[in-house]
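Possible regression after last week's pipeline update?

I re-ran a chain I had predicted before the update to compare outputs. Posting the input and the new output here so someone can diff against the archived version. Not blocking, just want to make sure nothing changed silently.
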Amino acid sequence: MGPLATVDFLRKLMEETPATRDADHVPVIVYSVPQIPDRPAAILAGGASPLPAMLEGIRTLKAAGAVRIAIPCNTAHYWYDDLAREGGVPIVHIADAACEALAALPRPIRQVGLIATRGTIAAGLFQQRLAARGFECLLNTENDQARLVLPAIEAVKRGDLPAAHVLAVRAARSLLTAGADAVLLACTEIPPAIEHAPSDVGPACVDATRALARACVAWWKSTTASA
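New output (post-update):
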């Protein structure tokens, strides 16, 4: 739903594809409509539901020939069950993909710091899945959420990546200082902020957007291998 988040996902989808020529890449149909109602506001404040607009997007993609859906917005997965049931097209779940990426890390991980919107946190989208895999979840303090995470997201949305980078790095560093073994970037605006410049927190971060892209590539490879 965020234009930059969509572009970031597409770039990572390309990077994760083992291609030697154009024809090796995953065919993609993009539906990018930034006017879909605000997801955290719908969850936290009873704002307009984005579900009808998201279903319209899925139906448009289905009519265009899509047979699998990826939604590069973590908070949108609050409506995952409704989208999967009413949309009629299988959806790759970004939280499942991210947990797979954490489990595949070559180093032992016990505590996972989570950077996400308040809506994603309130919905428990990641906490439940992390606990099911034996991970402990660390969250930013409410103060850090208000002065670092949300301003970083807002900075990305207005195109100010340098400012977003400083804020997002500080949010990640706070979680690492609190004992996190890895930091899960569970808002699609946060990876472009972290990646804007090199930082000491980068190696500890797991990007949910890249995990989603990797899961999509794995699905595509499985379908082409059996074709």
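Follow-up from reviewer: compared with the archived run. Residues 16 and 214 are 6 Å apart (CA to CA). Marking as no regression found.
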